[in-house]
Amino acid sequence: QQQVKQSPQSLIVQKGGISIINCAYENTAFDYFPWYQQFPGKGPALLIAIRPDVSEKKEGRFTISFNKSAKQFSLHIMDSQPGDSATYFCATLSGSGSRLTFGEGTQLTVNP
Amino acid sequence: GAGVSQSPRYKVAKRGQDVALRCDPISGHVSLFWYQQALGQGPEFLTYFQNEAQLDKSGLPSDRFFAERPEGSVSTLKIQRTQQEDSAVYLCASSLRRGGAKNIQYFGAGTRLSVL
């Protein structure tokens, strides 16, 4: 029933490398595309988000690329660090602009 | 200044028992959400409150699930006659405004429910 497809399921990257996580969505009514970061035993926390009227947004080492025609968006983590090891979820905002729909998650491991 | 607080952090229930999960949102936050997160999966929406009004309960999986927020602050998620498939982490989130793209949802650490 997931309306947001996320890949890969898991990712292992060396310190300093680039981590790339992809998401595809179906419903064109979505108008907000956030990425959440979750550490074990914690709730998800907003990392970065993008509106569909821009193709890219960068905040520090984190960049979202958005392709509206392909209905895809991706998260790029530059210079990945061991502290980035966590589970990452893409999401979309739907309904009245309140209900988040999450992808299945990507478990990222950054080796030192 | 505290974040979203959930209690208990862990709950073990025997099949058929009723459980109540509590959420204390960030003070002043209008919107409150409940999500269910199965092991290894993304959170799934259960229900949404705007102040004391439950505006969306379309994600509640059955009539055994009930949520309330009587005074527009603390919320309780109640599960009656628990089943093994109810085992999951239940996450609560709150946000300052009523909705919209910039209405960031802040999540609590969740309550891990295990039904034996």
What does this structure look like?
The complex is a heterodimer of chains A (112) and B (116). In chain A, 0% of the residues lie in helices and 56% in strands. Chain A has strands spanning 4-7, 10-14, 19-25, 33-38, 45-50, 56-59, 62-67, 72-77, 86-94, 99-102, 106-111. In chain A, strands 2, 4, 5, 9, 10 and 11 form a 6-stranded mixed beta sheet that branches. In chain A, strands 1-3-8-7-6 form a 5-stranded antiparallel beta sheet, with no helix packed on it. In chain A, a hairpin with a 6-residue loop joins strand 4 and strand 5. In chain A, 33% of the residues are buried. The model of chain A has no long low-confidence stretch (mean pLDDT 92). With 116 residues, chain B is mostly beta strands. Chain B is 0% helix and 47% strand. Chain B is built from no helices and 11 strands. The interface between A and B is medium-sized, with 27 and 29 residues.
